[in-house]
Design goal:
The chain has a single domain, classed as Rossmann fold, CATH 3.40.50. The protein is built from 18 helices and five strands. α4 crosses α5, α8 packs across α12 and α14 packs across α15. InterPro entries: Gal/GlcNAc/GalNAc_ST (IPR051135), P-loop_NTPase (IPR027417).
């Protein structure tokens, strides 16, 4: 693989609650990358100034469409990190006022080795889903897109007490016009029945699923992974992912994947937002213990056929990898 591919930034994104943290943290354990955790997430301690969660950024938007993004991508190189770190030191106690400086100092403290050896940026963020095309077009990013069974996402939202986010998606004209036309009937019903929380979450999953299917057609060079496949065969999935990204796969990384995917799961009905150690083979279907039979049946009836189409597009270890560039 060429040095040009090995220096390209990486974006790990996907449908909400689809395993991006597990995949991103594993890739982020490589000393070859600078791991930026959810810069689009206003709930993160350091983040971009964006007007919406799951911000849609048109592919032809200029590089400055999201302020500070160019600087963050540039931190993948040693020179960019050195400049941002120096800037943070000069700012002193005010270093948190500038995102690149804040993140540079944070990474120096969190992972001194990677701060010296990284040669590319890794952006792990499900909220970058509708900005992934722009990140590829403007910054030559390699994109990894995660998908998950609708009941897995929905049961996770219910257990975490998270609200439906359909309104934020539909407020964005570009997103709505590009990705939601097949869902006009469901969207009308959503507006007519605002108290139907389960219906809203089903619609939310379907918006992401339709968008992922369309992006799969338009960007076959991206790597599409399903939460279920990663849970079932974590080592082959991660080994091939590292090959696609042009990163070294090491015995230490393999041990990490095994440790993270074989931990005992005490109670699948309990739920932690970012638990990194799990019994991965039982996790994929843990939603069956979280949902009532009626809710599970409704999700299957309303979203099951679309999931069958979407899951068929996800890469499996026995398939040939798409070209990285």
């Amino acid at each position: 693989m060429s040095d040009a591919v090995r220096s390209r930034p990486i974006v790990v994104t996907g449908c909400p609650r689809s395993g991006t943290t597990w995949v991103g943290s594993t890739v982020g354990a490589s000393s070859e990358v600078l791991y930026l955790y959810e810069p689009f997430n206003d709930g993160a301690p350091h983040h971009l100034d964006v007007p919406e969660r799951y911000l849609y950024v048109a592919p032809d938007s200029p590089a400055h469409a999201v302020p500070d993004m160019s600087a963050l991508i540039g931190m993948g190189g040693l020179g960019g990190r050195a400049r941002a770190t120096a800037r943070g030191i000069r700012l002193g106690r005010r270093f948190r006022s500038e995102l690149p400086a804040h993140l540079a100092l944070h990474e120096v403290v969190r992972s001194p080795a990677s701060a010296l050896t990284a040669r590319r940026t890794l952006v792990k963020d499900p909220l970058a889903f509708f900005a992934a095309e722009w990140l590829e077009a403007r910054f030559d990013a390699l994109v990894v897109m995660m998908v998950r069974h609708p009941a897995g996402m929905i049961s996770s939202y219910l257990k975490l007490g998270w609200p439906c986010e359909v309104d934020s998606l539909l407020r964005q004209d570009g997103l709505r016009e590009r990705f939601t036309e097949p869902l006009a009937v469901e969207i009308e019903r959503y507006h007519e029945e605002p108290d139907d929380r389960l219906g809203g979450l089903i619609l939310q999953w379907k918006i992401f699923a339709h968008a992922a299917a369309r992006l799969r057609e338009e960007h076959p060079e991206w790597l599409y992974m399903s939460h279920e496949n990663v849970c079932e065969e974590p080592v082959p999935q991660f080994r091939a992912l590292f090959e696609y990204l042009g990163l070294r796969w090491t015995p230490a990384l393999e041990r990490k994947v095994v440790a993270d995917s074989t931990a005992s799961q005490v109670d699948p009905a309990r739920h932690q937002q970012h638990a990194l150690q799990r019994d991965s083979r039982t996790l994929a279907a843990a939603w069956r213990a979280r949902l009532s039979e009626a809710d599970a049946d409704r999700i299957e009836n309303e979203a099951g056929p679309l999931w069958e189409q979407l899951s068929a597009l996800a890469w499996e270890p026995r398939q040939r990898l798409p070209q990285a560039g």
